[in-house]
Amino acid sequence: MVEWSDFERATIQDIFSKMEYEVVGPAALSRCLVVYPWTQRYFGNFGNLYNAAAIIANPLVAKHGTTILHGLDRAVKNMDDIKATYAELSVLHSEKLHVDPDNFKLLSDCLTIVVAAKLGKAFTGDVQAAFQKFLAVVVSSLGMQYH
């Protein structure tokens, strides 16, 4: 079980309470698909992903990016048991969708960049450390079916 300091809990809750899901989610997923083009293979039914402009303008990418962020709400609300919170989603991604667990890490890195850009100077080293710890726990929980 992960131990969270009061600062970490407050920081994660604060970040998510201020986040524009419909902006940040699509930006993070678009960035991931552009920077790591091999991740596109899981989105074959999303249509045109031929270049950065097409990815950024794709409404299915935007919708899924928003869905991902709303899915992170579950972890924010269940920080003391993130593994159990994502057990079913982990099985789906590993057994049905066959998603390479490394892709969750790539997406979390892209999300960190987008959040850092949105928060600017407020994204201090301590804030970044708390945010990345949170994302690392989520990534580990989503990838647990692979181990």
UniProtKB/TrEMBL annotation:
GO molecular function, one term: haptoglobin binding
GO cellular component: blood microparticle; haptoglobin-hemoglobin complex; hemoglobin complex
Gene3D superfamilies: Globins
Domain Globin: 3-147
One GO BP: hydrogen peroxide catabolic process
SUPFAM superfamilies on file: Globin-like
UniProt keyword annotations, A-Z: Heme, Iron, Metal-binding, Oxygen transport, Transport
Sequence similarity: Belongs to the globin family.
The protein, known as: MN-Hbbeta5
